[in-house]
Amino acid sequence: MDISRILNPRRVNLALQATSKEEAITELTELLYQDGAISDKQTFMDDVWLREAEGSTGFENHIAIPHGKSAAVLQTTLAIGRTQHDIPWETLDDSEVRCIILFAVRLEDQNTTHIRLLSQVASALADDEVITQLLAESDPSKIIRLFSQYAETDLC
User: What is 3-155's CATH topology?
Assistant: First the structure.
C-alpha cells in the first residue's frame, strides 16, 4: 500500500497548537473534516475516545498513534501532527508526545486496509532514522515520502 495515495499535505500539520491529548485529537480531526475525509467531527472523535479508553495509543520516542474506526469516516486515511511542546500521553517508554499520527478508518476497512496501514506505520516507526526525520522535518510532502519510501522498501 502506498501511503501517498491516502495521505496528502493538507492532512499534515507540523505546527499544532495543542498542549493536551484532547486538543491534538481535535486539531487533527479538524484537518480530516476540512479535507473531506470525515463527515462528522463529533462522531469521529467519540469513536477515537472509545478506542483510547481501551488502552493508550502512545507508542514510544515521542509518538502516539490514536485511531478511530467510525461510520463518520468517508475515506480511510491518516492525519499527522507535530506539536511545539511535549504533550502528556501514556506511552510505552514514558516519553511525552510531540508527534501524533491519527488513523481514520472506515468500518468496512477495519479488518483489512487498517491492519496493513497500521503495520506499515509501526514498521516505519521502528526505524530510528524515520523517528528522527519525523520529529525534525518541516515539509509535509517529505513526511509523506518518508512513509511511502519506507513502505515501498518494506514490501520488497
Answer: Mannitol-specific EII; Chain A (3.40.930)
